[in-house]
């Protein structure tokens, strides 16, 4: 029996060949070590995070996330719903909160779900994976499993905006959350102190619609990491990871910079520190390779 079991909402970016598939690989490796069992919600669908941008309407957006909650209630009753994607977590958590604050929205949503033979109560907790690590596992327990400390690496903890507001992580400051810094230390690396862009937005979907604005934001995020002496950036968000990593060449061409800093997931750091190889840690899915982590993983 696993120590901890959760109803798992993978999200679209985690799927094979999707932008965050290496994130899922590292999460699986990390959970294997920590004895966490993720029970995938059967027949889950997109969280509808993008529908708001496309003016798809409030009810369709909420109903899509509510469907996942309803399916979770059927398949994994009593279990907290856990997501690894910041957008998925935010959309699902918002749906739960809004349904419980509006009887009319709950009624309309269940009328929509009834067409598929479903009904949602939305009574379960909706949590990001980092909440599980911090609150249920704890830094001390996470540290006990370190086999290959990430010594000699300085890392900027880029939280981003979606895991920080409006809900945030319990007990953490909205302006200066410390959980990534503590996790970096727990894995044997050195966090960047006073990283002043840790909760800044990367531009999200603006990367496609208004790339110049997004790239200006990303430039500041990377510059602040370099100013702090960082060797790499760590994040809990697939959109943040993708934007900050893949647009570095475009930013270099526009601003005459020479950025080439790896952007990794917390689960990748943990998997390497836990003794997993590069593939198991999802390092092969990076566009900008994290040589220091690859070297440690190869030992």
Protein architecture, described:
The chain has two domains: 4-129, Glutathione S-transferase Yfyf (Class Pi), Chain A, domain 2 (Up-down Bundle), CATH 1.20.1050; 147-297, Rossmann fold, CATH 3.40.50. Helix 1 (21-34) links the parallel strand 1 and strand 2 (36-40). The longest helix has 18 residues, at 58-75. Helices cover 45% and strands 10% of the residues. With 299 residues, the chain is an alpha/beta fold. The protein has helices at 21-34, 58-75, 86-101, 103-114, 129-137, 139-144, 179-186, 206-209, 211-227, 238-246, 248-255, 266-273, 291-297; strands at residues 4-9, 36-40, 81-83, 126-128, 154-157, 190-191, 232-235, 263-265. It is built from 13 helices and eight strands. Helix 2 crosses helix 4 (103-114) and helix 3 (86-101) crosses helix 4 (103-114). The model has no long low-confidence stretch (mean pLDDT 94). The relative contact order is 0.14.
Key structural traits:
299 residues; alpha/beta; Glutathione S-transferase Yfyf (Class Pi), Chain A, domain 2; Rossmann fold; 2 domains; four-stranded parallel sheet; 45% helix
